[in-house]
Amino acid sequence: MEDLKKLIEEISSRKPKNYEQMKIEVISKELHNTMEFEQNVLKKINLFENNHQDEDLIKYAKMICRNIIERETILIQETYLKKIDEQYLNSK
Q: Where exactly are the structural domains of the chain?
């Protein structure tokens, strides 16, 4: 159960970065890293489920993972699209 609490803390402590200051290539890498983080967290949660750990804590971990990753992904996508639009509008 301690490992599950540590995972929840790891998820909760994840903060979005200042994507506006990044280049398009770096933003793309950040999106990739975010998706990879989500996959790794979900694998760990599945292991906890298979070991029949605290069901409520597992549900909570899934919920915060989904919410935090979704918020971060949306922020990255919005910034990415904005930068692509700016780059193409400025180049025309």
A: 2-8+23-91
CA 81 to CA 49: how far, in whole Å? Answer: 37
> Which tokens belong to 46?
């599945």
* CB of 28 closer than 8 Å to CB of 67: no
pLDDT for the residue numbered 52: 79
The model carries a pTM of 0.81
pLDDT surpassing 90 at residue 51: no
For residues 30 and 7, what is the distance between their CA atoms, to the nearest angstrom?
Answer: 20
Helix (H) or strand (E) holding 48, with range, is helix 24-50
Q: Please say if the pLDDT value at position 90 is more than 90.
A: no
For the four alpha carbons of 51, 54, 56 and 60, in that order, the dihedral sign comes to negative
18 phi and psi angles, rounded to 5 deg: -85, 85
